Amino acid sequence: MAAKYFLRSERLGFRLWNEQDLALAIGLWGDPEVTRYIDSRPQLSEDDVSALLNKQMAFQCEHGIQYWPIFLLDDDEFAGCCGLRPYDQEQNILEFGVHLKPSRWGRGLGMEAGKAVIAYAFETLRVDALFAGHNPRNEGSKRMLEKLGFVFTHYKFYPPTGLEHPSYLLRRGDG
Fold first, then answer.
1. CB 96 within 8 A of CB 81
2. pLDDT, tens digit, for every residue of 75-129?
3. Burial group, residue 145, by CB count within 10 angstroms (0-12, 13-18, 19+)
4. Helix (H), strand (E) at residue 23
């Protein structure tokens, strides 16, 4: 794949989702190991994943952001996604998120992708803050958010899981 990346970190390249990426999206959001903390359904169908992909592409068209697909620079292998989505436009706050394929867990890629996206959000997009939340059962996400400098603020009900998710904020200049 001759991918062109608009953002790079040491090991990762970020590009935009497109209509030809359904197989990649199914490999990520169609995997119950990936979605067990972000959706209460046992497994997302191909139609569900297609709807998520279309939502990401719509965010990009409407807001210039999405949970961008990320690839390993050494071999262009798909690793997951990391990025931003609309959250609170009035206060200039975007939502941060990262979803990795299980084969990429435990290698520090979430932290690396997160640092790149946070820098992009504050330096390029000039947002004032980033919001993030995680499933209360996902200790790995909690640790990653805290290491990235996010500070717990409150619990917020998240309809896709039906749970109160710990919620965090990272303000420009924090961390």
1. no
2. 999 999 999 999 999 999 999 999 999 999 999 999 999 999 999 999 999 999 9
3. buried
4. helix 22-29
Where do the structural domains in the chain lie, given as residue ranges?
Answer: 7-171
Radius of gyration of the chain (CA): 15
On whether the CB atoms of residues 83 and 67 are closer than 8 A, the answer is yes
Q: Which two tokens stand for residue 40?
A: 């209460």
pLDDT tens digits for range 16-59: 999 999 999 999 999 999 999 999 988 999 999 999 999 999 99
SS3 87: strand
| CA atoms of 22 and 53, how far apart (whole Å) | 7
Q: Are 157 and 164 in contact (CB under 8 A)?
A: yes
49, 38 Cβ separation under 8 angstroms: no
Tokens of 36: 């067990």
Dist CA 60 CA 76 (whole Å):
22
Give the C-alpha separation, 153 to 156, whole Å: 10
Domain range 7-171, its CATH number among 3.30.565.10, 3.40.630.30, 3.30.980.10, 3.30.450.20: 3.40.630.30
pTM of the predicted model as reported, rounded to 2 decimal places: 0.94
